[in-house]
Amino acid sequence: MADREEELIKKVNTMEESLKEKMEYCRMLEEINSGLRKYLNEMTGVYRLLEAMNTIKSLEKIYDLLVDILGSTIELDACAIYLYNDGGNECKAVKELNPAELLKYKEIFNVDRAMYEWVFKKKHIAIVPKGMEGKDDPGLAFFESRSFAIVPLYSNEKKIGYVDILINKPANTITQQELSLLTILLNQTTVVIENLRMYEQEKETISKLRQIDEMKSDIMTTTSHELRTPLTILKGSSKIIEIKMREDMWNDDDRKLYMELIHNVNTQAEILEEITNTLLAATKFENGTLKLDKKVVNVRQLIESVIKKYTYKTKNINLKFTCSDPNITAYIDDEEIKKVVRNILSNAYKFSEENGDVEVELSADAKTFVVSVRDYGPGVPADEKEKIFDKFYRMDRALTRRTGGMGFGLYLSKIVAAQHGGSIWVESQVGKGATFYFRIPKEEGFGS
Amino acid sequence: MNDINESSKDLKDLIQKMDDLPILPNIISKVMKIIDNPYSNADHLTELISMDQSLTVKTLKLANSAYYGFPREIVTVTEAVVVLGFLTVRNLILTSTLYNIFVNESQEEREFDRRKFWKHSVATAICARLLVSATAPGQKEEEEAFTLGILHDVGKVFLDTNYHADFMSVMRESRKNRKTPLFEAERRVFGIDHAEIGAMIIDRWNLPENFFEPIKYHHTPGEAADKYMTSILHVADVISKFSVANYDPLEISAQLNAEAVGVLKLQEKNLRTTVQNLEYEMSNADLFLNS
């Protein structure tokens, strides 16, 4: 009996032992299982980011994804991604999660400039220690259950930005795995961010280059078109002169023709010169090498000198000049302002009918003078009033062909006016003509 | 009696002497184990360090040194681990332990100046870290390079301790005949050089396996499979002997293994910058030098 009892006790003991062992196995398996689950979770995060690197083309989406992945791999309460601008002197948040919470803990952990400088010097993730201040304050125990991490973002040797992370567990329990995971995730993100930024920059450069290319072919087309007419006339006239001279075919009756041909050559050479000068001036404006040579000038005399020299060969136009005060003076570059008057006048002539009227007026107030030129041509449609001052802008093709011109004149006039601190504009009603104005500060007393 | 036989006899004797090697304190292997476990945290490391009072003091002293330049005072070992990182703390522990083994105060009178030797080890360590940071930034690699730098000449300590007279004559010979590198002179006399002995010691001390190759081949990096770390250690070993004042590009390139330079894609200006940075860092490394 006693033997049986003993045997039973033995059996029970063995069973208990084996049960304990099995339970221990179960516990270990459970531990392994939870470790594997965590690992799987972390790897999924890395995988998602790597996958996104190839597909996502928007920076914002990458920031969103990063915060999402961080949240699913570590226990994250708040976070902010800061990036430097191209010059590296300005840093701003591009993505924030619970920024108020982050700021609060930044103060509690006393995360100051020196801390960031240190992190950037070391170039690796740093967990800010909780510090000794207020250690006896029981309220702080709660704060110590969280930790503040700073991760510097580097691409090669270039500082890209940094990430602040508020982790919902005390610093002393963060594992090496979690730290290296954070590092891997953020290093990968830095690569993605840099690539996307470069991609954006390239896109911008390409569009700029395309614009320049378009502008260049515009210039080529307009210039060659403008040069062709005078060149054809020049060539034709000189060819006739050459033939007649070689064959000694001149007689007195040809004198009139001879004069006309020579006149053609002169006029077309002048036109070519003007085109060249305009192009040259445009280049100077473009690259900023044009400098104003200002002096005190009588504006009335300036306008009169332009009008007197201005002869439009093909049309008979009635020009009227009125002036409110004959003694208006201003401190300006007279050659450049003359060009403006000439451009506007030439425009008015171009768009006027035979025997049409053009009215020029000069007026002034205490600080500025205004020149206006009115024509009774087709006028400027409302939606083109701004555009006509753009470079190479010309109204419609038919009109252009009829009137000619490089489309530079008004653009140059706008720049000259702007360089003088003034402005240029047009008032018009379609069918009733147009009035061009330009207003320039007198700056009297400056140079006198 | 021919040389080879004599060398082999020495070699046998030498391997026997390995048994007399000072053993690495138990704590180091425990620290290594913790660092190897990715799921360990600062608490685990702190628990271990706190058991050794002098180690605790040293860790905090180093953590607060100018070399690490942390902007706030680090008061607890946990903070030191959190701020400096696991690998750096491992280095601190390893460095202060090895200092005790390498710099034997009673041997100060000896011809092989252990303090000078220690200084070279620290310079190589810092230089190796700088080179990693300049070629392929990564904290893990930087810390590994540092540790290798400290350990790379451990074989010399062994030779000096066990074969002092022979080792001194080898040193003198190598110094006299500048064309014969020390390791070649060692091979002639002992049948083995300090780099190989060093690797054997690493093995005996159960240090991480990846330390073995860089130490074994730090004079002949072309023979290593782990070309990167071996090249780092080789270049660091060579250029840490130079300063800004005696910087000599010709002399440096004569001593450097071309393959190692190629592996690291180093240019002359990289070397010059590293020597400059090394000088600056050494001026902050007092605590390492007098651990």
Features:
heterodimer; A: 448 residues; alpha+beta; Beta-Lactamase; Heat Shock Protein 90; 3 domains; five-stranded antiparallel beta sheet; five-stranded mixed beta sheet; 11 helices; 12 strands; elongated; B: 291 residues; mainly alpha; Hypothetical protein af1432; 18 helices; 0% strand; globular; disordered N terminus
N-to-C order of helices and strands of chain A: HHEEHHEHEEHHEHEEHEEHHEE
Structural class of chain B: mainly alpha
> How many beta-strand segments of chain A?
12
Number of helices of chain A: 11
At the first level of CATH, the class of the largest domain in chain A is Alpha Beta
Mean pLDDT value of chain A: 82
Query: In percent terms, what proportion of residues of chain A is strand?
Result: 15-25%
Written overview of the protein:
- The complex is a heterodimer of chains A (448) and B (291).
- By secondary structure, chain A is α+β, with helices and mostly antiparallel strands.
- Chain A has three domains: 36-201, Beta-Lactamase (2-Layer Sandwich), CATH 3.30.450.40; 222-287; 295-441, 2-Layer Sandwich (Heat Shock Protein 90).
- Chain A is built from eleven helices and twelve strands.
- Chain A has helices at 2-55, 59-73, 99-108, 113-122, 140-143, 176-246, 255-287, 299-309, 334-351, 397-403, 409-419, and strands at residues 76-84, 91-97, 126-128, 147-155, 158-167, 295-298, 318-323, 329-332, 357-364, 368-375, 423-428, 434-441.
- In chain A, the strands form three sheets. In chain A, strands 2-1-5-4-3 form a five-stranded antiparallel sheet, sandwiched between helices. In chain A, strands 7-9-10-12-11 form a five-stranded mixed sheet, with helices on one face.
- In chain A, strand 9 (357-364) and strand 10 (368-375) form a beta hairpin.
- The longest helix of chain A is centred in the middle third of the chain and has 71 residues, at 176-246.
- The radius of gyration of chain A is 41 Å and the shape is elongated.
- The N and C termini of chain A lie far apart (136 Å).
- Chain B has a domain at 7-23 and 106-289: Hypothetical protein af1432.
- In chain B, 69% of the residues lie in helices and 0% in strands.
- Chain B has 18 helices and no strands.
- At the A-B interface, helix 4, strand 3 and helix 6 of A face helix 3 and helix 5 of B.
